[in-house]
Design a protein that fits this description.
about 425 residues; alpha+beta
Length: about 425
């Protein structure tokens, strides 16, 4: 009897073992290229959503004068594993009433197949000295000029990234914690709105012209001068020869605003010039950074011929847009979030400054609103950007991309925090 049962066990085992490679091969099809199809876009969506949530959370934190904090996802290592096994379990039952005391044996084959996913996520806290320095560094003049030449409206760029233009204030006190008194902003917004309409009519253009900046000269002829010229050429500088003599010059790109002659027929051109103390007869305005006297001393009677900018740092920009956060009334009453008041004691409406640029709604609920483009939970409320608010969505997208450019570390730093996730 033992021999018969052993033969039966062997036959069943061989049958199952013959079919097991087919099971393995069919299951293995889901690994390899199929793994990329199944996981890449899911990781992409997760990174996108959490990046947006992190930026929105920091904006909300600043409205409450809480410290911002960011965590960068340095790398994702996703390991896929397929494990198969085969076993046979002997099973004995009573032979039945006709064969009392006897047992009949059978074999229960068992095949196992399991798949394991072991992603490893590497995080880098962005709260070190380099991050802080970048957070406080104002955007460069070239950076503002570049953004203004892209498809982003010039009014969006100038409202976000400029503290003032020709010392006309763009709500400068809003570039930090919420002020007690309303900021100055009306004249600036009026002038920028006119500038935007001129851009829409293609009557103004920002671009860069190449100019020579004299480093030394005119030089007096002689061996010493010749040596200076040779050294200058080796250093990448240029030489300019004029009747007055030879000068060493450095060529640089100067951002300018060019104005079409047809702008003279547009009231918006004169509104723009009046708001920023400009000479309306000018057709080219140089863009400069903090070169104008803050009290406009020495300004020609006909007006200025430059656009002098004071730019904001990323932290100042985030503080500025944080005033577009709709703070729940109970948080204002309790003092959890500061409040700006008019001279008569009434609350100041910040959408007068940020209208058409940035707004974050809030609601008390167990789940994020269905109409939320991006939402975060903070202090018992959901703060979110409405899907139908195209202006805020566009501004938020610009903030997200520029913050990545501004804060991306150039150093080769090892991750400080690595989390291996379970199956």
């Amino acid at each position: 009897m033992i021999s018969r049962h052993f033969k039966h066990f062997t036959a069943v085992l061989i049958t199952w073992w013959a079919g097991f490679p087919l099971v393995l091969s069919m299951s293995a099809c889901s690994l390899g290229p199929r793994t990329i199809e199944q996981s890449r876009l899911r990781y992409n969506e997760a990174v996108k959503v959490t990046s947006e949530q992190q930026l929105l959370l920091n904006v909300v934190r600043l409205r409450y004068i809480d410290s911002p904090s960011s965590l960068s996802l340095a790398s994702i290592a996703d390991q896929q594993e397929l494990i198969g096994g085969l076993s046979a379990i002997p099973f004995f039952t009573s032979a039945g009433a006709g064969d009392f005391g006897g047992y009949r044996g059978t074999v229960l084959p068992q095949a196992t197949l399991s798949r394991a996913t072991r992603p490893t996520l590497s995080y880098v806290p962005l709260d070190d000295q380099e991050f802080t320095q970048r957070l406080f560094t104002p955007v460069s003049l070239d950076g503002v000029a570049y953004l203004s030449k892209t498809t982003w409206p010039i009014s969006t760029v100038f409202r976000l990234y400029l503290e003032n233009l020709n010392w006309v204030s763009n709500a400068e006190t809003a570039s930090g914690p919420t002020p007690k008194k309303p900021p100055e902003y009306a004249e600036y917004l009026q002038g920028i709105a006119s500038l935007q309409r001129l851009q829409d009519l293609k009557l103004i253009t920002l671009y860069a012209v190449e100019r020579d900046e004299t480093i030394a000269g005119p030089l007096i002829s002689g061996n010493e001068s010749a040596a200076l010229v040779i050294d200058a050429l080796k250093s990448g500088l240029d030489v300019s020869v004029t009747p007055q003599g030879t000068s060493i010059v450095k060529r640089k790109k100067q951002p300018v605003m060019r104005i079409d002659d047809a702008a003279l027929n547009e009231p918006d051109w004169f509104t723009f010039c009046s708001a920023f103390h400009l000479d309306p007869s000018q057709r080219t305005l140089d863009l400069t950074a903090e070169k104008l006297d803050p009290y406009l001393q020495g300004t020609p009677s006909q007006g200025l011929s430059i656009l002098d900018l004071e730019t904001r740092s990323l932290l100042q920009v985030l503080f500025f847009v944080s005033h577009g956060v709709q703070v729940p009334r109970e948080h204002l009453v309790s003092g959890a979030a500061p409040q700006t008041c008019e001279a008569n004691g009434q609350p100041f409406e910040w959408q007068q400054v940020l209208g058409g640029l940035f707004r974050v709604c809030s609601v008390k609920a167990k789940r994020p609103p269905a109409n939320a483009q991006v939402a975060v939970e903070y202090r018992g409320y959901w703060f979110y950007i409405d899907q139908s608010d195209s202006e805020t969505k566009a501004t938020f997208a610009l903030l997200l991309e520029v913050s990545r450019l501004e804060l991306e570390s150039t150093g080769n730093k090892a991750p400080l925090l690595t989390l291996p996730l379970g199956r």
